[in-house]
Design a protein that fits this description.
This protein is an alpha/beta fold and 224 residues long. It has helices spanning 11-22, 51-61, 84-104, 127-146, 170-183, 192-204, and strands spanning 2-6, 26-31, 42-45, 63-69, 106-114, 151-157, 160-161, 190-191, 212-215. The chain has a single domain, classed as 3-Layer(aba) Sandwich (Rossmann fold).
């Protein structure tokens, strides 16, 4: 099996790529900075928001069995004062870039997107995040119909301790994660490995398609 992990150089994508490597799959990590230690994988440098480069890369990759998208671009803040350029970058990174990749790629088995809990559970300051994740999930459902028998699904994480939070000062990040942990039914935030296990389920279960799989510690039940 050949699996391409877009955004696979850290966090959920890297953890999922490690599972594929352990299973003996041929792994390709596609990222702005794909040089990840301690994983046997082909590396491809790519800015997923560059449509021309995306089409060139995926045309060159040839047939692939599984395609996984977990790129991240942050755009947070109150809707009325939100930096719309940052919001556009989020859409280019998480929606339009992957859309172009789907058009260019020759996928044989399945596609998995990583969306997010904000698509289902409103949070103050999360309007752009909610919008892009909702768009990803809507796209996924239509692709599951159009691309069949290729299966198309999405994993929807809640709050997960990954490098996506590294833009914050360590003290602020830890306080924020602790606050979320205290509000969740499971009493803690998630790990990249737990989300990777969900990605792996969608990659390997041939009877799942058109599904958003929430892996959020109960976030949707008791929104922090």
């Amino acid at each position: 099996m050949k699996a391409v992990f877009v955004g696979g150089s850290s966090g959920i994508g890297l953890a999922a790529a490690r599972l594929a490597e352990a299973a003996g799959w041929d792994v390709v990590i596609v990222s702005r900075n794909p040089d990840v230690p301690d994983i046997d994988a082909e590396r491809v440098t790519l800015d997923i928001s560059d449509e021309t480069a995306v089409r060139e890369v995926f045309s060159a990759l040839g047939p692939i069995d599984h395609l996984i998208f977990s790129p991240v671009a942050r755009a947070g803040g109150p809707a009325r004062t939100l930096d719309l350029e940052a919001a556009r970058r989020a859409f280019e990174t998480k929606l339009w870039g992957p859309f172009a990749a789907v058009q260019a790629a020759d996928v044989r088995e399945s596609i998995v997107f990583v969306s997010g809990v904000a698509a289902a559970t409103p949070m103050r300051g999360g309007s752009a995040t909610a919008a892009v994740n909702g768009a990803v999930e809507a796209l996924m459902r239509t692709l599951a119909v159009e691309l069949a028998p290729v299966r198309v699904n999405a994993v929807s994480p809640g709050i997960v301790a990954t490098p996506t939070w590294d833009f914050m000062a360590a003290e602020d990040r830890d306080a924020m994660l602790d606050r979320f942990a205290g509000a969740l039914p499971v009493g803690r935030v998630g790990t990249a490995e737990e989300l990777a296990a969900a990605v792996w389920l969608l990659l390997t279960n041939g009877f799942i398609t058109g599904t958003v799989l929430p892996v959020d510690g109960g976030h949707r039940l008791a929104s922090p």
